[in-house]
Amino acid sequence: MIRFVPLRRRVRDSIARFTRDARATVLIEMAFAIPFLVLVGFGGLEIANLTLTQTRISQIGLNAADNASRIAAGSNLAQPQVRETDINEVFAGVETQAGNLDFKTHGRIILSSLERNDDGGQWIHWQRCYGDLDVESSYGEAGDGEEGTDFPGMGFEGAEVTAAAGTAVMFVEIYYDYQPLLYGKVVGQRRMHSTAAFNIREARDLTQVYNPSSVAVSNCD
């Protein structure tokens, strides 16, 4: 004899078995937990990427200042000269080191030659730039301090970098607009800024930047 169980009872029994099954509890917990874990996981990835990018930007600025402090071409018969092509090569190194940051589009590096003027004050003799980000130097532009002693140097107020007589300091400012991975609205627009300075490694001709090959000048206009 076939016994038919009413549909309502079968549904009730199925629900009862489901509620007694520990696996059901795990499924429910996972259903609630997985979205939260994904959110936290990607949030951690964003923070890690932000920190790594800031470190990379800082290192790029340090390397650029270091490389600029070494550039000079010439012979033993005269002081080495700084050429526009040498400066452009420093900026080419910046782009190579930046890699996938798309630095030219989202960043800008400002290289200044900080020197002593004839009055013993600080002077930004020349300045070159690379990158499309529309920012200006936070510490001065080419020609500042050419006369007198009012210009204190470059850097944070009260802790300015200064150049000694007969030498020069390659001062770098680097800016970069951070490109978020996923949480752009949460992270918001973040403009990274870093500075670096190196004294030139050997005596060089400080009168001008030479351009014997007539290459493009990386002006800051």
Any key phrases for this structure?
single chain; 221 residues; alpha+beta; four-stranded antiparallel sheet; two-stranded parallel ribbon; 5 helices; 19% strand
Structure overview:
By secondary structure, the chain is α+β, with helices and mostly antiparallel strands. It has one domain. The chain is built from 5 helices and 6 strands. A 4-stranded antiparallel β-sheet has the order 3-2-4-5. Strands 1-6 form a two-stranded parallel ribbon. A hairpin with a 5-residue loop joins strand 2 and strand 3. The longest helix has 49 residues, at 22-70. The termini are far apart.
Short structural description:
With 221 residues, this protein is an alpha+beta fold. Helix content is 39%, strand content 19%.
